[in-house]
Design goal:
Rossmann fold; single chain; alpha/beta; eight-stranded mixed sheet; 941 residues
Length: 941
Amino acid sequence: MDCWPRRFIGGSALGASAICAALPGQTSGLHIVIADAIDPEAFGTLLEQLDLRRTLFNVVSKSGETAETMAQFLIVRDRLLRELGAVDYKRHLLVTSDAQQGALRQIVNDEGFRALPIPAAVGGRFSVLTTVGLFPAAAAGVDVEELLAGAASMDERSKAAATPLADPPLALGGLLWQLATSRQKTIVVLMAYCERLAATADWFCQLWAESLGKAVDLDGRTVEWGQTPVGALGTSDQHSQLQLYLEGPRDKAVVFLRLEDHGTNIDVPATYQDLASVGYLGGHSLGELLNAEQRATELALAKRGRPSATLTLPALNAFTLGQLFYLCQMATVAVGALAGIDPFGQPGVEEGKRLAWGLMGRPGFEASRAEVEAWLARKDARFVILIERPASVVKELVENALDAGAHHVEVELVGGGLEQIVVRDDGEGMAPEDALLAFARHATSKLTCAEELARIATLGFRGEALPSIAAVARVRLVTRRSADPTAVAIEANDTGHRPAGSAGAAPGTTIEVRELFATTPARRKFLRTAATELGHVVDLLTRVAVASPTVGFRLAQDGREVLSLPPVRALRDRLVQVLGRGRAGALVPVEAVHGGYTLTGFVAPPREQLASARLVWTYVRIGGEPVGAVAGRWVRDRVLLRAVLDGYASLVQRGRYPIAVLFLAAPAGELDVNVHPAKLEVRFRQPAAIHQLVAPALRARLTASLAPTAPPGQEPTAVGERPPAYGSVPTSTLTLEPAALPLWRPAPRGFASLRFIGQIFEGYLLCEGEGRVVLIDQHAAHERVVYERLHAERRTQGVPRDPLLVPETIELPPAQVAALAEHAAALEAAGLEGEPFGAGTFLLRTTPRALAGQDVAALLRAVAAELSEEGTSVAADRATDRALATVACHSVVRVGQRLDDAQVRALLVAMDGVEVVAHCPHGRPVAAALTRTQLEGLFHR
């Protein structure tokens, strides 16, 4: 065996990890992997990398009921059985469990696995000095007899102590207990000044937290006792956490862990002696510097009255590590005794296990499953409104106005909404009894039955918005139905609500909000200036107005009109109002249907690129037809954004974003709008169906209408054209960045008809034709041509490739090797065949023929970086596109390469054979044009 993964959870894993990390030089040659989590991707990658015939799996669970351990044991057992057969597979499993009882012990007895016992009275977090920790230590080459001897010496010293202060475990435990109870030091920091002891700090945190965090004491009284442990590493955390420890809340006790002798010492050369700020280091060692920083930190804490203690090990070896383990365990027990709690139980953890077993369908735990399902049902039906800033208030009140059937909505702000917000609508008002009830939490609903939760068509709940707002502000509501002679007024704040008599008012509702966050100054201080808060309201109202074009909206700030959007008949008319006539006119409509979902909206040509996704507006609704005047709810959804970006793949540059206004209608039951307090995020039952609808629809529409040549007499719209301004709102809130020249796509065979004038800056081709001067990026143009050719070859006979006579091993970060393994099919499609060769190496066997003579290692590193940046969840088609784009980029002419006339002519002819030629595969523009009129304008002709 040369590899030995261990499968265990919590304290069992952390103890073994601490030993192996503290004593790494004492190795037996075995590669020991500690798998202490059930992340499917990580565990699956581990199994793929292992040679099962040379691997021993140690399964550790005292009870044999730990779901995580047993699930992975079943997976490993099945794979070993299939690959090695019914006889040999048992040689590759070693079980560490209770000696007498438990499900795992029963399996051992039935199947004859080799096994090691765990003492009956020892729990996982106290098991580091049992077979749980000693066996992996021995396998790693650690002298376990020395480890036990160190623990025994600490035990003898403790027993022989004449006073509590002479007993190390009791002295440490007593100090921390005293600090917790009399000085409210509710956090204990174990700061190790030795990198090899970082895992020991993690082990201590688990030991301390699970042993001492208890709700009741030994007498059954509720105490909720516990001290939160935090692991830290000197000197690294001196630059991240120490500032907090020195000047933050006085709730921490710090325990330093230092070495007297670091074993390996590296001297600092006596260089730059004339520089006082550097030369003083010469003649000292790194170990001296590390210990000096620990002492200095200890003194800095003392000067500020911050308590600390220091544990000093003469050296780090098996003996002293055994002493340290025993000291920490017995100090934990001592604190438990002083606090009157049981340090060996873990009732809170057991409660979580019970509920998880019920959810997973374990027999006998049906009541637990029912309990969880009932809680989830209550949670899903509870609507909570999140009020973060003035725009949050405006959002809730405007959405309620739209649900009430308003035709006009007015918003008035004073001081950016910090002083006052007034929202006035002409929708259906409320009856007096409903108006009073609207300020009671969870008391109103626009649903008639629970089943309507799955097909919500309204935007909000007045009975949730109003009490949430009243909790942080003073609110006055005036509302009247058209059939009522007068309006009713209600006033509310954080103490409650009351009727405020009748009032004269037109039918509809007016809500006035004053002194937002006045009673919660901690929240108010995080708000920005009035201008910034106004900008948030403008952005919000604009997005809401786009989904309701037949409703008029008006916004005023300090008595001045800021935004005015009269009602219009169609979405494009509303987009003209908010984006400007030029930009809205360039939008192209998109429609698609797939899997019961319907997509409608508009997208901009790829030349309209932004530095952020702020003009990717996505709206969702449940059901086919809009309810009332609202076409959908604006959401900020990663699934939709990813689908939009994939639709624009290779048309916009990485890090740039398009303009899109899209409405998605989902069938009932396929969309959950209740996953976010402010309803800004949603959850799709079938995210893949969304991607299969949106990305291809956008791609097809953009390809069909990409960058058309401007009609005679009409100049192309520059990217920097500004929309109309509204009152005092800075136009920068709705404008795009400028570009010097518009992109250009000629008529068919237009590139071949250009007259080549010359090459400038050894990277750009200057041409003339069609009454224009055209600049072409030679690298981007050639890259698009080769990319399209590679795609065509992949779809037919496959990308031509050549085998390497000697496969090339290329060192990469482990994450990039994992990304290459995940997307092996994409690599193969691009002509790159190979496989991982260890955790940090990839073995490359073939290369694309287009790269003959090129640096294949540089290519693979570029592909690995692309795929790693995309993430392992990226779709296969997108991964293939990224790989092909990188191959194309590395195989074409570059900036700085001279081209003769024949090469330029061949490139221009090839460009006419490409369907999408306006952008390179990475989204950079290929060609830009300047008309004769524009050129003459530069010279004022």
